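Human: Here is a favour to ask of a fellow structure person. Comparing notes only helps if you start from a blank page. I am asking you to supply a protein in sequence and structure-token form. Write it directly below this note and I will take it from there.

Assistant:
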Amino acid sequence: MGHDRPGLLREISACLLDLGCNIEDVVSTVIRGNFALMLVCTAPEEASTESIHGRLHGVLGDSADSPHPSMHVDVWEVDETHARGRPNYSLGVIGPDRPGIIHAVAGFLDQHRIRIADLVSRYTNLDPGVAEFAFTVEIEIPAGVSVYDLKRELDAFCQKLHVDSNLYEIQ
């Protein structure tokens, strides 16, 4: 992660390819000019986390004397036993911005044992003096949970927060 610039994904993927790694899952975004990337890849046995970090560090740098001092690189092994199911619903929430909206909705989902798989949030100020907040989460609603009842509870909960919500099944 660090300051965004053209070519970052090409540089990272080329470095990993040179090491014999295969990128399997990736999430990347730019937030207010900052590039963030998280990926999962398989690597040959001879490519240790230290060697991968060293090569990425050489390409991207994460120290004051590197060519791109605004980058931070970290590498670690992922335990595959924590693999989960796939999200089956998408929840959109929009309303006037104020602190605590994400916290409140995350608490509601947690109370219903609903796992958040992905979250994207945007702050907009399209009308002068009117700050809007919108986010979308992909969630995994467990089998046996009544989506009808959940939607009814969610609508009432969001009404108390003064935000609107939409819950859609992911096909």
About this structure: The longest strand covers residues 115-127. Residues 26 and 78 are 14 Å apart (CA to CA). DSSP finds four helices and seven strands in the chain. The domain at 2-81 is CATH 3.30.70.260 (Alpha-Beta Plaits).
